[in-house]
Specification:
Layout lengths: L42 H12 L4 E6 L2 E5 H11 L4 E6 L2 E9 L3 H10 L4 E6 L3 H6 L8 E7 L18 E6 L8 E8 L4 E8 L3 H8 L3 E4 L1 H4 L2 H9 L4 E3 L7 H12 L12 H17 L11 E3 L6 E2 L1 H7 L13 H5 L5 H12 L5 H16 L1 H11 L5 H9 L5 H24 L7 H10 L6 H8 L20 H28 L5 E5 L3 E7 L11 H4 L1 E5 L3 E5 L1 H34 L1 H26 L6 E3 L4 E6 L2 H9 L8 E5 L18 E5 L6 H17 L7 E5 L3 E6 L11 H15 L5 E5 L7 H19 L2 E5 L8 H4 L3 E11 L2 E10 L7 H7 L4 H16 L4 H10 L20 H7 L8 H19 L1
Parallel strand pairs: 1-5, 7-10, 9-12, 10-11, 13-23, 18-22, 21-25, 21-26, 23-24, 24-25
Antiparallel strand pairs: 1-2, 2-4, 3-4, 5-6, 7-8, 8-9, 14-15, 15-17, 16-17, 19-20, 19-22, 26-27
Helix pairs in contact: 5-7, 5-10, 8-9, 12-22, 13-22, 14-16, 14-22, 15-16, 15-22, 16-17, 16-18, 16-22, 17-22, 19-21, 25-26, 28-29, 31-32
Bound molecules: adenosine-5'-diphosphate.
């Protein structure tokens, strides 16, 4: 059973029933209005049908009084999607009209559920007071219009958005092929903050780019979406795709609109835009205009994206490195979660954006690192800034809602408090930089924090109550003392209430009815109520001359008087005037804010950046990160590197310390010795070692250090020197992708092909167990050829973990390949992982020891050891191997007893123990038994 939302309905007519104020399908037409309508269609129905027809791909939320009603197929779909009751109302062309509704005050919640389920919603409001409509005739239809289309990529409400995540609407446009390679232009806008990004990328890079942007919604022309491969990547990025007419991708219109929105005559200040980029911008802004019904969002200056600006990380690498979420989709075990020490939603969004898009320009990275470094040094400043930022409201989102005329008094309050926080942060930074000067990035943040007109914050502080309410239409957000006019009207309103109490006392005395009360409800307004039993004298003269009967209820009778009606009208008009004055004040404040919009957006961005760099400084101190050195060399010299996610997890679980490891591909510091001094020129390390020894962890930690360094963060290492990486690749062999219908091996090969085709000499590649998904010799041969290709053709830096020991021979043949291995020790036939990387190759794979650790039954591991011993004797010759295996007695060696013992069978030691009765034993006998038991146990372990 669904929930009947109609119970939330407040009565709106004199009758006890809860009728909607203006039921469109059932409304009857005023005389003369039906002339041009088909038979049986009322004007209100015609209005509904017309609005619905204009928005065919949306569910129509049709405002009727305190409810949004849905009709026809929308009602059926919404009732099912929301689990609410489907009712019917009136008839259309002889059939019942299905209907359901949601109360206006809970609309956000239902909108969110519909949007998550992939619906688009057109919100249709009453554009006039029903009282206005009634002036045109008692049956006149209230004027209604769609004020907004709600789609996943155009949300602005706090309750519909994740405070810590950006919500991009991304327009995609395939550029003309021309002679060169295919390119795709992308324009992305988060209308909830004004963040705006434009770029042109090679079509090959599309998967990584769309996953990086992670849009809330994608728009593209039908032709684009018809490409199954592109569509698949949009789906993987989790974005619903909305087709828009190809004609919307008009670069001239895009250029014109962009200039108009940014308020410039020439776009040169923002860089040069290609025609495809402007076409994407054109479609984007057109879609915003259509969904926001002409209201303009605030647009920040566009940021340029693309391969030259950013470290390119393709889609499989993003997922395998678990940057923003783990491969299972969980956010808490991602790199982002491990480094996120931000204290505001805006700061968290900035951090996530930086992590998703590390930079390539050493100077820009250096600027960011300077800012982090400055805050890293000064504990007091860092703590003061974090304290000032904590509880700072989301300035950018409040500003956007106000720009789209969807702002609330709470949004005004957010601007007041956001500005106050910005001013105190600016003061803190200035005094923190006293004498020593601030690094450029912080100086710039500081200027933007203090950039807003100085009068605005005090104005908002004077105008607004401390904690402004969410709803604008109910007033009560202007602080007493701000407007004399408002104070006077409010006094009149409140004074009249006082008068009402006096009136009640007077009437009680006049009638002698102590229980007489003056009450109020929405339908009758003010009335006098007496218990039914006491009402008699009031119904006859002389009292009936004053008291006019209005309503008889079960237990009470209601009256009014001339005087009461007059006072009521004074109260109502005072309250109405107070409300209207507050609305005017809201509008004035919103206008002042609008004139400062651009500066305020810059202030909001500065607050987000400050939170982000302070958080990076905080995590650097807390987790002992160091400042990396970045330049244009091809060095990769990490000393004492750590995997920050694994390290923090080990710490959290009290599971021991993380072991630091060096990774020195092309050293910059030959004078500082490492365990790898023989191989300082190697660019490609082959990493061998048993499963569980820490190979994957080692590989990934180095990739993560690159991401962290190039996003402008300190890194988990003792020192790090990194020649800037242009493209980062990470592949893990044998990853399951059955859901996508490709065999594991096929996926692995497709992805490996991507690397071999794209890695440059500035790239860094990590490959983990490539070639595993096929027969041994196939796999080995492919892995072999891949290493050769990486070495000879790509000439990139690479870490290659493999279980093919045969590959280690390559180190002797290729000058820039070296072997390293994860150190392990054997201790009493057990394997102990030291998690330390050392020069050389693993001598064997210790698979059986690892299987033992994993709890494989003892007879199985024993038997496996025997088979292995025989295989090793064969020295790799297939013919010998077959013959030997043939000789291997079936189960014989593994079966010392007459049957293979089940885990529950008692061991000899247990049997011996069961035969002992401790109460009968002399101390000496007991000691002997103890020796015997120890001996038995030792034999068993073997
Ligand atoms: P492999 O890839 O060799 O199978 P993993 O990298 O998956 O091994 O590591 C297995 C486990 O060993 C990890 O989950 C982690 O708990 C632990 N580990 C790996 N590297 C280290 C290290 N450097 N210090 C401490 N523990 C580590």
């Amino acid at each position: 059973m669904g929930q009947d939302l109609r119970k939330d309905r407040r009565p709106r007519s004199a009758g006890a029933g809860a009728e909607p104020a203006l039921p469109p399908p059932a409304e009857t037409a005023a005389a003369g209005e039906t002339a041009s309508l088909p038979a049986g269609v009322t004007p209100s129905m015609a209005q509904f049908l017309e609005i619905k027809a204009a928005n065919p791909d949306c569910m129509l939320f049709y405002r009727m009084g305190d409810f949004y009603e849905l009709f026809f197929e929308d009602a059926v779909a919404a009732a099912e999607a929301l689990g609410i009751v489907l009712t019917k109302r009136g008839k259309h062309l002889g059939d019942d009209i299905p209907m359901c509704g949601v109360p206006v005050h809970r609309a956000d919640e239902y909108l969110q559920r519909l949007i998550t389920k992939g619906f688009r919603v057109a919100v249709c409001e009453q554009m006039e007071d029903p009282a206005e409509a009634r002036k045109r005739g008692s049956k006149a239809v209230v004027h209604r219009d769609v004020v907004r289309l709600v789609t996943p990529g155009t949300l602005t409400e706090e309750s519909l958005l994740d405070a810590k995540a950006r919500n991009y609407l991304t327009a995609l446009f395939k550029g003309p092929h021309g002679g060169g390679k295919a390119t795709i232009a992308l324009a992305s806008l988060d209308i909830s903050t004004g963040e705006f990004e434009v770029g042109d990328i090679p079509a090959n890079d599309f998967p990584g780019e769309i996953v990086r942007l992670s849009p809330g919604e994608v728009i593209a022309a039908d032709g684009f979406l018809a490409d199954a491969d592109l569509r698949k990547w949009i789906e993987i990025a989790g974005a619903p795709a909305t087709p828009v007419p190809a004609a919307h991708f008009d670069s001239l219109a895009g250029e014109r609109q962009l200039k108009a929105q940014l308020g410039v005559a020439d776009l040169a200040a923002f860089g040069s835009f290609s025609r495809p980029e402007l076409a994407a911008v054109g479609a984007l802004l057109k879609y915003v205009e259509l969904t926001q019904i002409g209201k303009k969002p605030c647009l920040r200056p566009p940021r340029r994206s693309g391969p030259s600006a950013h470290l390119v990380i393709d889609a499989p690498t993003r997922s395998s490195l678990e940057l923003l979420r783990s491969t299972s989709g969980d956010k808490s075990s991602s790199l982002l979660a491990a480094i996120d020490r931000t204290v505001t939603g805006a700061g968290a969004r900035e951090l996530a954006a930086r992590l998703a898009s590390p930079l390539r320009d050493a100077v820009a990275i250096g600027d960011r690192l300077d800012a982090v470094g400055f805050l890293h040094e000064s504990e007091t400043l860092r703590e003061d800034v974090r304290r000032a930022l904590r509880h700072t409201p989301d300035l950018a989102r409040a500003l956007s809602r106000l720009a789209l005329q969807r702002g609330t008094p709470r949004d005004l309050g957010a601007i007041r408090d956001g500005l106050a926080a910005a001013q105190s942060c600016a003061r803190l930074l200035r005094s923190g930089g006293d004498g020593i000067g601030l690094p450029a990035a912080l100086d710039d943040i500081c200027a933007r924090l203090a950039g807003c007109d100085e009068g605005l914050q005090p104005l908002l502080a004077r105008a607004l109550v401390d904690d402004p309410p969410h709803l604008r239409r109910e007033g009560n957000f202007v602080r007493p003392g701000f407007s004399k006019d408002l104070d006077d009207t409010r006094a009149l309103r409140d004074q009249s209430r006082q008068v009402m109490a006096t009136l009640e006392a007077g009437y009680a005395q006049e009638t002698g009815i102590k229980a007489l009360k003056v009450r109020h409800n929405n339908i009758l307004g003010y009335y006098i109520e007496v218990p039914a039993g006491a009402s008699k004298p009031m119904l006859s003269s002389p009292l009936s001359d004053t008291f006019r009967h209005r309503q008889t209820m079960a237990g009470a009778t209601r009256f009014t008087t001339q005087e009461l009606a007059e006072i009521e009208s004074r109260i109502v008009s005072a309250a109405d005037r107070a409300l209207a004055t507050e609305q005017d004040i809201f509008a004035e404040l919103a206008t002042v804010i609008a004139t400062e919009e651009r500066v305020l957006a810059a202030t909001a961005a500065a607050l987000a950046e400050l939170d982000c760099v302070t958080a990076l400084a905080e995590v650097a101190v807390e987790q002992r990160y160091v400042r990396p050195l970045l330049d244009d060399s091809t060095t990769f010299d990490i000393r004492g590197g750590r995997h920050t996610v694994v390290e923090q997890a080990l710490k959290g679980a009290n599971a021991g310390a993380f072991i630091e490891n060096d990774c020195v591909l092309v050293t910059s510091r030959p004078e500082v010795p490492t365990g790898f001094d023989e191989m300082t020129e190697a660019r490609l390390w082959l990493v061998t070692g048993p499963n569980m020894a820490g190979k994957s962890t080692f590989l990934r930690q180095n990739a993560l250090i690159i991401v962290l360094a190039q996003m402008g963060s300190f890194v988990p290492a003792l020192s790090a020197h990194i020649g800037i990486v242009d493209r980062l690749f990470s592949r893990v062999g044998a990853a399951d992708d059955l859901a996508r219908g490709r065999s594991t091996f096929m996926v692995e090969m497709v992805e490996t092909a991507g690397i071999l085709n794209q890695a440059t000499s500035r790239s860094l590649v990590i490959l983990d167990e490539i070639g595993r998904g096929t027969a041994t010799f196939d796999g080995l041969s492919i892995a072999w050829a891949v290493v050769e290709h990486l070495h000879e053709v790509n000439a990139c830096r690479a870490l290659f973990a493999t279980h093919y020991h045969e590959l280690t021979a390559l180190a002797g043949r290729l000058p820039q390949v070296a072997n390293v291995t994860m150190d392990v020790r054997e201790w009493r036939e057990e394997i102990v992982f030291l998690h330390k990387v050392k020069a050389g190759a693993a001598d064997r794979s210790y698979g059986i020891q690892v299987a033992k650790l994993a709890g494989l039954p003892k007879p199985v591991t024993k038997r496996a050891a025997e088979v292995l011993a025989l295989l090793e004797k064969s020295d790799g010759k297939a013919g010998d191997r077959a013959a030997l295996l043939h000789e291997l007695p079936l189960f014989a060696a593994a079966r010392p007893r007459s049957h293979i013992p089940a885990e529950s069978d008692p061991s000899p030691a247990e049997e011996a123990l069961a035969a002992v009765n401790p109460d009968e034993l002399a101390p000496k006998a007991a000691l002997e038994i103890l020796y015997k038991l120890k001996d038995l146990a030792r034999k068993e372990r073997r």
